[in-house]
Amino acid sequence: MDKLKEAFAKKAASEAVNVKQFIAEHGDAVVGEYTVAQVYQGMRGMTGLVTETSKLDPEEGIRFRGYTIPELREKLPKAPGGSEPLPEGIFYLMLMGELPTQDDVNDLTNNWARRSIVPRHVFDTLDSLPANTHPMTEFSIGVMAMQTESLFAAAYKKGINKKDYWDYVYEDSMNLIARLPRVAAYIYRRKYKNNEHIEPDPKLDWAANLAHMLGFDVFDVQRLMRLYLTIHADHEGGNVSAHSTHLVGSALSDPYLAFAAGLNGLAGPLHGLANQEVVAWILELRKELGGGLPTKEQIAEYIKKTLAEGRVVPGYGHAVLRKTDPRFTAQQDFYKKYIKHDDLCEIVQMIYAVAPPILEGTGKIKNPWPNVDAHSGALLIHYGIVEYDFYTVLFGVSRALGVLSSLIWDRVLNSPIERPGSNTTEGLKKKFGAVKQK
Ligand code: CMX
Q1: How far apart are CA 23 and CA 411, in angstroms?
Q2: Residue 304 Cβ < 6 Å to ligand 1
Q3: Confidence at residue 132, expressed as pLDDT on a 0 to 100 scale
Q4: Does 320 contact ligand 1 (Cβ within 6 A)?
Q5: CB atoms within 10 A of CB 130
């Protein structure tokens, strides 16, 4: 048994008992009430899930096991000579509920390196896809092709005790996380770099290895990748990618099937795909103005035009957040600290200065502030990763850390199949009264 699994097994056993006891004592307590509007409008504000790995506060932003992003940038272990956290550390924190030591993180790097070999048929499957397949579709298909390797599915077929589910889900999740950078990089090199692939380097940490396999073996890109893969990892349980992974996993679909479902949700433009949309929108704006740096007035006009066309301003707004996303602020800080000047990053800052009052002025957008996707593309472009329809794949690599550590906890806590009730408009009208005729 690997070192992390051994430590986790102890933690899991006591926590499973603890949660069982909590439900026995407080199972009848009322968590909240909800309205007809919430039922129709995306279940906003209803607490219907337990997710241990992170919690989102509308004003303050995300906390991973109680720690904010600035705290984690300071406290999580770094690579030698590095200044940004290693994503191995945030995975350890989310799974174990405590900060890792440098040894814990090094151990995890080696653990994932040992598990990182991707079976040949996954590459063959990707090679068979038409060149115009979107990278997120390829990524989801790559994960599905790897499902042949599921230890959970194989064990379930033979027959396993419920108590052992988490063990197989742990193994599948660790293997999947270890292999995702290779699959992501394969998609990138096949699509944009003439099919010239780069083998992984087992000496590198998880994020640096991804940078290496993409073809960016420079310290600056490794540093960005470490921050990127840390801050995109989790955003509590109700977002589309986390919720779909949890939901599909609740049917005891194995981690490959469940995570592919999460990726398919992440590929939507209102969720993870917004990172590609932001860059497309800024480039469109620049093209329309004939290139160069736009003025704030021109940006304001462009935002108004986008709204008038009934489109969304990508990178702005959020279903839960009501302030600037600390994941945006972390990237802004990265820009100011390490890059200092870049035209596209400057445009991102100008949009931040101009957009909120205009969005607020519509009177309907509940959060006029930027989210994580408003900044990420400009940083990647600065370092030469310019193929922006690939960006959501990077988001997906990171998101695996959160949703799969949650999936392991789901099986520890024996979460049942998810099956909320639904009603019809007719049924709701019967209960609350029909529309009054004017
Ligand atoms: N631009 C234009 N209109 C927006 C808007 C934006 N950035 N954000 C919200 N709105 C609109 C909604 O479309 C909705 O319009 P209708 O009433 O006409 O349907 C209205 O304002 C109210 O929406 P809301 O309650 O403020 O926001 P929601 O919780 O419904 O949606 C989100 C949240 C993120 C989907 C939305 O803000 C949006 O579409 N933003 C742009 C896309 C984006 O950046 N997504 C990434 C989110 C982070 C992530 O998951 O990665």
Answers
A1: 16
A2: no
A3: 96
A4: no
A5: 5
Interval between CA 161 and ligand 1 midpoint (Å) = 44
For the beta carbon of residue 364, count every other beta carbon within 10 angstroms.
Answer: 7
Average pLDDT over residues 13-20: 97
Please return the burial class of 61, using the count of CB atoms within 10 Å of its CB with bins 0-12, 13-18 and 19+: buried
| Class of domain 1-270+391-416 as given by CATH | mainly alpha
Among the atoms of ligand 1, which is closest to the Cα of residue 235? 50
Select the CATH number that applies to the domain covering 274-382 from these four: 1.10.230.10, 3.60.20.30, 3.40.50.300, 3.40.50.10260: 1.10.230.10
- What is the domain partition of the chain in residue ranges? 1-270+391-416, 274-382
pTM of the model: 0.98
b (16+ CB within 10 A) / e for 375-394: bbbbbbbbbebebbbbbbbb
Mean pLDDT of the chain: 97
Partners of 56 in the β-ladder: 62
* Cα torsion 265, 267, 271, 272: sign: positive
Distance in Å, CA 322 to ligand 1 centroid = 12
Helices 391-412 & 3-26, crossing angle to 10 degrees? 60
- Summarize the confidence of residues 296-307 as an average pLDDT: 97
- Residue to substitute in 275, 316, 367, 372 for testing ligand 1 pocket (most ligand atoms within 8 angstroms of CB): 316
Catalytic residue among 134, 235, 318, 375: 318
Structure tokens at 424: 């019809």
Residue 347 CA to ligand 1 centre (angstroms) = 21
CA distance 68 to 60: 9
Distance CA 110, CA 92 (A): 14
**292: pLDDT confidence band, cut at 50, 70 and 90?**
confident
Residues 330-380 pLDDT 10s: 999 999 999 999 999 999 999 999 999 999 999 999 999 999 999 999 999
Report CA dihedral (87, 63, 43, 229) to the nearest 10 degrees.
-20
Known active-site residue 271 = yes
